[in-house]
Amino acid sequence: MPRITYTKCGDYYLPGIILKDSLLENPEPITKYGIMRRTFLKNHRLGYYNHLLLTEELYPHLREVQRTAKSRLETIMEKLVKSNPPPDKEADGLAWAAHMNILKCTAEEIVVYELIYE
């Protein structure tokens, strides 16, 4: 079992703990879907959250969720645009923007339900 080293900082001793999955090895930040998943796990699946955190699998899990969510969102948007074609963008830009916003919200609801709150 490795020994923990301590560094004196002022009047306090701080443990020298370094995670295996450091930000230097994988600089991909945790974004919207990863943060949503972390918050859900912390609030509703605390045992699983603690297991992932203690085994250092939390951040790889969050990165995988956000990669999957992003690709799934793009796929769903393509299918929704095919099944519900938007109005001509040049003829009526506001109607096009409103239509695309509705489709994006629909796709995000599906992705969040499938990946974040499972």
Provide key terms for this protein.
single chain; 118 residues; mainly alpha; two-stranded antiparallel ribbon; 4 helices
Write the layout of secondary structure elements.
Layout (H helix, E strand, L loop, with lengths): L5 E4 L2 E4 L16 H13 L1 H9 L3 H26 L9 H24 L2
Antiparallel strand pairs: 1-2
Helix pairs in contact: 1-2, 1-3, 3-4
Notes on the protein architecture:
- It is a single chain.
- The protein is mainly alpha-helical.
- The chain has one domain (27-116).
- Helices cover 61% and strands 7% of the residues.
- The protein is built from 4 helices and 2 strands, in the order E-E-H-H-H-H.
- The chain has helices at 32-44, 46-54, 58-83, 93-116; strands at 6-9, 12-15.
- A two-stranded antiparallel ribbon has the order 1-2.
- The two termini are 36 Å apart.
- The mean pLDDT is 89.
